[in-house]
Design a protein that fits this description.
Blueprint (H helix, E strand, L loop, with lengths): L2 H8 L11 H5 L5 H13 L6 H8 L3 E10 L5 E12 L5 E2 L2 E4 L4 H17 L6 E7 L7 H15 L8 E2 L8 H15 L19 H19 L9 E5 L3 H12 L3 E6 L4 E3 L6 H9 L11 E3 L11 E4 L18 E3 L8 H9 L3 E3 L1 H4 L1 H16 L5 H26 L3 H20 L3
Parallel strand pairs: 3-6, 4-5, 7-8, 7-11, 11-12, 12-13
Antiparallel strand pairs: 1-2, 2-5, 8-9, 9-10
The structure holds NADPH dihydro-nicotinamide-adenine-dinucleotide phosphate and 2-oxoglutaric acid.
The site of NADPH dihydro-nicotinamide-adenine-dinucleotide phosphate has 25 residues, from helix 9.
Length: 440
C-alpha cells in the first residue's frame, strides 16, 4: 500500500501537514520522552505524513510496569519498580537494552524505547524498538541480590519477551553477567533459548565483538563523519569522553589504538586529563585493579563537571541523557559532538550547538553498533553457529559505513541537520513496514 493509499484510507487531507503534538500539550514540563518526540516531530515536518500516522509512530505499542520483590542478604524485603516499553515491532521483534539506574523511570524508558525503533531502522537491521529499566542503584546491592533481581524481572515479563518477540540486551549498569542470568531464567520457562537476550558472555552463546561493539561502532561513525567533512582520519585528532563505562572506555581504547589523542575522560565520580593523550589501556588496567580516574598516575585529576567544556576536536558524551542542555551547550569547545550515549542532548542544547556551528552526530546512528552486533549474536544463536571476531568487526564496519552514507545523503538533499536526516531515514523505513503489513 502506497503512502497515498494510507492517506485515502485513514485521514482527511485537511490534516496532512499538521504535526502531531498531543504529548506536548498534555505535558507541562519537559521530559526525556517529550524531548525525543520534539526531534521526531522536526523530521516529520519534512515528510508530511497524516496526523494519525504520526500518532502511530510516536506512541509506544505496549508499556509494562512491574514490582520486583526480593529478600536482601540482611533478610529484609525490598521492592523495586521495573519497566519494559515496547515501542514498535513493524520491522521485526522488539529489541533494546536493560538499564539498572536509581533515576530511571517510565518516562526515560519510553524515550529510550522510541530511540531503539529509529536506531534499528537507521542501521537497517530487522528489529523494532524496546527498552527496559529497573529503578535501583546496583552499587548498593550484592551480586547475589542483583541475580535475584534479574531473575525476578524475567519471571515478571517472561510472557511479553522471547527470541521472536522481544530481545533485551545490556545498557547502563548491566552486562554479560546479567544477560547470562536472564538467559538461564528464561530457559527454565521456555526451554533452551539463547536468542532471548544478547550481550551474553562469549563462552555462553554470546558473540565475539559484542562487548566492544558500541564503542567500536562509535569510532567507525566518527571516522565517517571526519571523512565527510574532509577532516582526515582519527589519527592526530583530539577527543574528550564523558562516561568511562562499557561504551566510553572501548571507544577511548580504539580511538587511541588508531592514533587519536584522548585528552580527558570522566565518570560519575571524577575526571582525568593528559594534554599528550591518556594511555587508555593503562588507565583501564588501573581501574580494573580498583583505582579511580582521579588517582591515575598517567594524568592529572580535573573537575568532572568541566568535561563537556574541555577543548577538543570531538566531544563524545557516553554516559547519561540530557547532559548537553541550553546552558552546558554554550560552553562546548569542540568542532563535533558524537553522541555515544542515548539522548545526551536536549532540544534546547541542540539548538545552541546548531547556532554555534558545532556539528552533532546523533545517537540513533552513532551508538547503533551495539544493537547491530546484538543482531549478529541473535543470528548466530538461531543458527547455533559462531563467527570469528574479525568477521563480526568487518560486518559492523560495513553497517556503520552504509548507514552513515544513507544519513549523509538525506542531510545533503534536504539540507537538514544530521539528526533530522537520521530520523527522516528511520521514519521512512518504519512507515514503509507499517504500510506493507497493513493495519487490520
Ligand atoms: N552498552 C551498550 O551496548 C550501549 C549503551 N548505550 C548508551 O551508552 C551510554 C553508556 O552506557 P554504558 O557504557 O553501557 O554504561 P556503563 O554503565 O557501562 O557506563 C556508564 C558510564 O557513565 C558514567 N556516568 C554515570 N553517571 C554519570 C554522570 N552523571 N556524569 C558522568 N559520568 C557518569 C559511569 O560512571 P560510574 O562508573 O562512576 O557510575 C560510567 O563510567 C548510555 O547512555 C547507554 O544508553 C547505547 C547503545 C548501546
Ligand atoms: O544491543 C541491543 O539490543 C540494544 C542496546 C541498547 O540498548 C541501545 O542501543 O541503546
Amino acid at each position: 500500500m502506497a503512502l497515498n493509499a494510507w492517506r485515502r484510507a485513514v485521514c482527511s487531507t485537511r490534516l496532512l501537514a499538521q504535526t502531531f503534538d498531543a504529548g506536548a500539550q498534555l505535558r507541562a514540563k519537559s521530559s526525556h520522552s517529550e524531548n525525543t518526540n520534539i526531534f521526531i516531530r522536526e523530521a516529520l515536518k519534512e515528510l508530511e505524513y497524516p496526523v494519525k500516522l504520526q500518532k502511530l509512530l510516536l506512541t509506544p505499542q505496549r508499556e509494562v510496569l512491574v514490582e520486583l520483590v526480593i529478600t536482601k542478604d540482611s533478610g529484609e524485603i525490598e521492592t523495586y519498580n521495573a519497566y519494559r516499553v515496547q515501542h514498535d515491532d513493524s520491522r521485526g521483534p522488539y529489541k533494546g537494552g536493560l538499564r539498572y539506574h536509581p533515576a530511571v523511570d517510565l518516562d526515560d524508558v519510553r524515550s529510550l524505547a522510541s530511540l531503539m525503533t529509529w536506531k534499528t531502522a537507521v542501521m537497517d537491521i530487522p528489529f523494532g524498538g524496546a527498552k527496559g529499566g529497573v529503578t535501583v542503584d546496583p552499587k548498593l546491592l550484592s551480586e547475589r541480590e542483583l541475580e535475584k533481581l534479574t531473575r525476578k524481572l524475567v519471571q515478571s515479563i517472561k510472557d511479553v519477551i522471547g527470541p521472536h518477540e522481544d530481545i533485551p540486551a545490556p545498557d547502563m549498569n548491566t552486562g554479560a553477567r546479567e544477560m547470562a542470568w536472564f538467559f538461564d531464567e528464561y530457559s527454565k520457562f521456555a526451554g533452551f533459548s539463547p536468542g532471548v537476550v544478547t550481550g551474553k558472555p562469549v563462552h555462553l552463546h554470546g558473540s565475539y565483538g559484542r562487548e566492544a561493539a558500541t564503542g567500536r561502532g562509535t569510532v567507525f561513525a566518527t571516522r565517517e563523519l571526519l571523512k565527510a567533512f574532509h577532516m582526515g582520519g582519527i589519527a592526530g585528532k583530539n577527543f574528550v569522553i564523558q562516561g568511562f563505562g562499557n561504551v566510553g572506555a572501548w571507544a577511548a581504547e580504539i580511538l587511541a589504538d588508531m592514533g587519536g589523542k584522548v585528552l580527558a575522560v570522566s565518570d560519575a565520580w571524577g575526571a582525568v586529563e593528559n594534554a599528550e593523550g591518556l594511555a587508555v589501556k593503562e588507565l583501564r588496567r588501573h581501574l580494573a585493579a580498583g583505582g579511580k580516574l582521579a588517582d591515575f598516575p598517567g594524568g592529572q585529576a580535573i573537575d568532572k563537571d568541566t568535561i563537556l567544556a574541555h577543548p577538543c576536536d570531538v566531544l563524545i558524551p557516553a554516559a547519561i541523557g540530557g547532559v548537553l542542555d541550553e546552558e552546558t551547550a554554550k560552553d562546548v569547545q569542540a568542532k563535533f559532538v558524537v553522541e555515544a550515549a542515548n539522548g545526551p542532548t536536549t532540544p534546547g542544547g541542540d539548538a545552541v550547538l546548531r547556532e554555534r556551528g558545532i556539528e552533532v552526530l546523533p545517537d540513533i546512528y552513532t551508538n547503533g553498533g551495539g544493537v547491530t552486533v546484538s543482531f549478529f549474536e541473535w543470528v548466530q544463536n538461531l543458527q547455533n553457529f559462531r563467527w570469528e571476531e574479525a568477521e563480526v568487526n568487518k560486518r559492523l564496519d560495513r553497517c556503520m559505513t552504509e548507514a552513515f552514507a544513507a544519513v549523509w545523503d538525506i542531510h545533503r538533499q534536504k539540507k537538514v541537520p544530521l539528526r533530522t536526516a537520521a530520523f527522516v531515514l528511520a521514519l521512512q523505513r518504519v512507515t514503509r513496514a507499517h504500510i506493507h503489513r497493513g493495519f487490520d
